[in-house]
Amino acid sequence: MKLAAVDIGSNSIKLVVVQADSSESFTVLAQEREVVRLGQETLVNGHINSAAMLRATTCLKRFRAIAETEGAEKIAATATASVREASNSAEFIRTVAAETGLHVEILSGLEEARLIGLAASQGCTEKGVTSLNIDIGGGSTEISIFRDGEPLKLVSVKLGAVGLTDRFIRSDPPAPDELDALRSKIRGSLESPARELREQSWDQTTATSGTALAIGAALNHAAIVDLSELKRLNARIAALSLAERRNVAGLSPQRADIIVAGGLVLEETMNALAIESLRICDWSLREGVIIDRLREWERSSMPRPTCQKIDGVS
Asked: Is there a contact between 120 and 206 (Cβ–Cβ < 8 Å)?
């Protein structure tokens, strides 16, 4: 069975097409990612403007064509913070359906956390291990604790690299008072959820999505990120101008403008949860949607139990 998943995020839109044997086994046939910045201004103003909507529909048309060329039988499209926070989200859904034929499901923050955690648990964690995953998106941060593919705790916080950059970063390079205000906002937003999460225990920590992958790449493609290394990297990057950040080895030029905010969210989350190191995981929401849809398909395909006679009773 060939399936495709489209993740409409606040920073980028991503596609994966897979050949699936089961929810535990699938092969990636195609992957695409395009920076659309649907959350730029949207997360501050609460409205998706026409230019952002056009960028999104143009990208989604292309992604649908790729998925169909690969033979995808079903395409699951989901949207996250920038769409769920927008006052005109219904208009966006209607426009996408009319222009591309895709029917978009808007995920709640907790459902987003569940699907991302599912992917990280299955794709990057040993069986039988309790894991915590941190996912920093453009508009929100999702934190989950999973064991054996099942959630123990789900948290969604309105902290994202695009939204925070729009709200706090005005100077180039960022001014010290802007960075102080940004840190204060992050710490205040994490205080309550961190207290809840610390009531749980976990054996392993992972981090998913663009900010984490970018930080790993900037640290010489490190699979493991230590908090001490992250603090040094964040201090170095925050002191650079945007033009200089675009030339940092391993860092995508397209992420250079939002990496300061994203890096600080990861640093402060690790601080709040007393995490000294974590593993970078390249599975995230798309893979979580695929696994979840395959599980649903498997459950619906299971034969119904039959009643058997026992000692003459049926």
From this structure: yes
- Give the distance from CA 158 to its chain's centroid: 13
Find the CATH number of the domain harbouring 199.
3.30.420.150
Contacts of 31 (CB under 8 A, 6+ apart): 14, 15, 16, 17
For residue 154, what are the domain limits? Answer: 126-283
186 plus 271 within the same structural domain: yes
- Same domain flag for 22 and 57: yes
With respect to residue 296, please indicate whether it lies within any of the assigned structural domains.
no
pLDDT tens-place values along the chain, 314 residues long: 899 999 999 999 999 999 998 888 899 999 999 999 999 889 999 999 999 999 999 999 999 999 999 999 999 999 999 999 999 999 999 999 999 999 999 999 999 999 999 999 999 998 899 999 999 999 999 999 999 889 999 999 999 999 999 999 999 999 999 999 999 999 999 999 999 999 999 999 999 999 999 999 999 888 999 999 999 999 999 999 999 999 998 888 999 999 999 999 999 999 999 999 999 999 999 999 999 999 998 888 755 444 333 333 32
Long-range contact list for 100-103, CB < 8 A, 24+ apart?
Answer: 100/57, 100/60, 100/61, 100/64, 101/64, 102/6, 102/60, 102/64, 102/75, 102/77, 103/77
54 and 200, same domain (yes or no):
no
- Is the Cβ–Cβ distance between 189 and 159 less than 8 Å? yes
- The answer on 162 and 93 residing in a single domain is no
Q: What residues are paired with 208 via a beta bridge?
A: 135
Single-letter amino acid code for the residue at 99: E
Strand partners, 154: 144
**Cβ–Cβ under 8 Å, residues 106 and 38:** no
Q: Within this chain, do residues 146 and 246 fall inside the same structural domain, yes or no?
A: yes
Tell me the CATH number at 20. Answer: 3.30.420.40
CA–CA dist 68, 307 (Å, integer): 43
